[in-house]
What we know:
Blueprint (H helix, E strand, L loop, with lengths): L1 H10 L8 H34 L12 H8 L5 E2 L3 E2 H32 L2 E10 L2 E11 L7 H36 L4 H10 L3 H7 L8 H23 L54 H4 L1
Antiparallel strand pairs: 1-2, 3-4
Amino acid sequence: MDFFDLRFYIDFFISYDVEPFKKLWMSFVIAGCVYLIFFVLEGIALWTIAGREGYRHRWMAFVPVLNSYYIGVVSDKNKFYNRIPARSVSLALAIVELLLVAGYVLYYVVTGIVLAGGLYDTQAQQMTIMGQTQTYYVITGSSSAISGMWLGWIFDYLDTAVLSWVKLIYILLHVVTIITFFQTYACRRYVMMSLFSVFLPVKPILMFAVRGNRGMNYHDFVRGEQRRRYEMYQQYNYHSGDGRGGYNPYNGRPTPPPSDDPYSGTGGGSSSGDPFEGLGSSSGGSSQDPGDPFDDLKK
C-alpha cells in the first residue's frame, strides 16, 4: 500500500506541463524505485527482529500485504489499550490492504486507458509564481464519450466514493499497528516515531533503525522506569540527610546531627571545678603552704 502513497506524493513534484498519461507513468516509475528500497529495508528489519525474538515464518517479511500482518506478529508482546492483540489488528489491516490494492489496481488501469485515449475533459486554471502567470489544465472528469459507461464511472467515482472510505479504515488500523510495533521496540520514543510514520513515508526507515532493539511489554517498561526513579529518589534522600545533617564526602554517609553541647567533643562530659588542676593540687577548698621556693638554693 505504501507504493500508492508514494505515487501520490511524487505526483506533486511533477510539472503540470507534462502530458497527463506521461505524468502518470513517470510517477509510477519513480514511486516503484523508492518503494523497492523501502520494501527491502522493512523486510530486513522484520526478518532480523523475527530471528532474534524467535518468531516463525520469517518469509512473510518479504511478501507484500503479508508483511503488514507480520508487523503485528512481531509486536504481540503489546496490546492496543492493553485489550486488543496486535496480531488481530494487523490481520484486519492485511485484509483491508488487499481490498484497497485491488481497488487501486482497477482504478489506475482504467485511468491509464482514459488518459492514453484522451477520454477526459480539462479546465484551464492560472497560477502566479514570482510575478509570472502560468496557465495549466486540470482534469475535471471523463468525457461525454464514456460518461455513461462503467469506464467513466470508475474514472470519476471509484477513488472518491469508494476507495477513500476503505482508505480511512486502512489508516486507522495502520496507526494502531504502528503504535504497537514501536511500543515494543522503541518504548522511549514510540510516540514520536509513530507520528512520523503516520504523516510521512518514513516507516520502513524507522523500523530499520530499531531492528536491533529487544522487544518488551510497554507497561513493564513503564513500571521499570517508575521503580528506577523511586530508587534514585531514595538514594538522594539518604545522601542529603534529613535537613540537620549533610552529605559526608569521605565515606558517603550523612554526618551525624550536632549535639546540644557545643563543647562535648573537647572533654569527658563533666567540667572539673579548677581549671588549673594540672598545675597544682587542691582539696576540699583548703590550701597548704607550698614552702619557700628557694629552698634548693639555700642548701
